[in-house]
Amino acid sequence: xxxALFYWPEIQGRGEFxxxxxxxxxxxxxxxxxxxxxxxxARLLRDADTPAxxxxxxxxxxxxxxxxxxxxxxxGRHHATLAPRDEAARLWLHQVQLxxxxxxxxxxxxxxxxxxxxxYEDQRPEAVRRAADFRAHRLPKFFGWFERLLAAHGDDxxxxxxxxxxxxxxxxxxxxxxxxGFPRAMRRLERRxxxxxxxxxxxxxxxxxxxxxxxxxRIAFNQDGIFRHYDELDDPG
Amino acid sequence: xxxALFYWPEIQGRGEFxxxxxxxxxxxxxxxxxxxxxxxxARLLRDADTPAxxxxxxxxxxxxxxxxxxxxxxxGRHHATLAPRDEAARLWLHQVQLxxxxxxxxxxxxxxxxxxxxxYEDQRPEAVRRAADFRAHRLPKFFGWFERLLAAHGDDxxxxxxxxxxxxxxxxxxxxxxxxGFPRAMRRLERRxxxxxxxxxxxxxxxxxxxxxxxxxRIAFNQDGIFRHYDELDDPG
Lengths: 237, 237
Fold this sequence. Notes:
2 copies of one chain form a homodimer.
Chain A: E1 3-6, H1 15-24, E2 29-31, H2 32-36, H3 39-47, E3 57-60, E4 63-66, H4 68-78, H5 87-111, H6 124-151, H7 166-181, H8 183-189, H9 194-204, H10 207-213
Parallel strand pairs in A: 1-2
Antiparallel strand pairs in A: 1-3, 3-4
Helix pairs in contact in A: 1-4, 1-7, 4-5, 5-6, 5-7, 7-8, 7-9
């Protein structure tokens, strides 16, 4: 049975973490809103018995599953390529994914520090301050933590050791998105987090991921997503 | 075997969602930092093989488990009083908990919209703007969603229907914290979310929770936690 993914059709956003996992697992799925413009997603948000608070959500086996990390937890239980079988390792992987989700929220808030319903232009001074704090303190803290986890397994290892998991796919997306959004800050940080930056390149070279990135299914980064490029939010040029 | 909880010893914060679950399950646990001032917590954050990015984390059965919602997911698997056995219901409960975690982050950001390392006084104008957006848009959106979930089961039901779960305990904590932080906004919203407000009172009356709230183990709300009261961030008086 094919999965049905519900997410905004014009951005990578949080849905991209799910798309990468589905693609890596070679799972059959429909990206429903890209077919119908969002009609069924809106209906399910309004009428479902277990409505998501916000997209993305996945229809699987008759259930609706929301919250990005929760969707990945579910997919990890059903696809051996995405997560280990061992329960303690699965919980640890989920913990890392939840920390990635926290980082994603902080990235979002660099350009929307006052309100997600307001335009960027209406919160630009606050964004400049928040982004400076993010580049100086939060980004190095998150990256230092990821780097420590990766380095513990030696060179050319994955997040959990020998085998890729959905967590590696998500770390790829984090690096790719931040390179788009904060190219100068990312170049500044690159040498300090070489395992993380190498992981990005190694994930991009996995055959199923390389094929996906090269396909029309991969939406390009743009100024409506979570990762956005505003020059004044990056390191001074 | 007793659990060991690691969290900041002087605030409720995110640790309180875990404390409430441990108390409701009548689980044996040590609140370690309240005994040693945080020494072992600092050591584990620095030296553990699977370090948490931030407190709270729980030591259980030799493993360290971080991220509040992940800890509750784990406890729900080991205590029948906290979560249902059915896998789909457990995932749904976890999804709700992750949405509560998102709200908690937004509450935090009302008083720290620029950076968690800065004093409130150094980000007050930004906080006033963000809190106004929170009261006008975000809080009603989250509360409307919780209310819809509760109302679907009729009066005097719990989040999942007939039996309390850790999600109900967390919703209690949300209402209690927001009543402390935003008393005027909460009074304004009370009539629109009567199931949610009644749920708060019903959780507070559960015997094990009532005993906990009355004990010295319950730290009082204060101006160092997630839920803080700054008069200028609440509805105009």
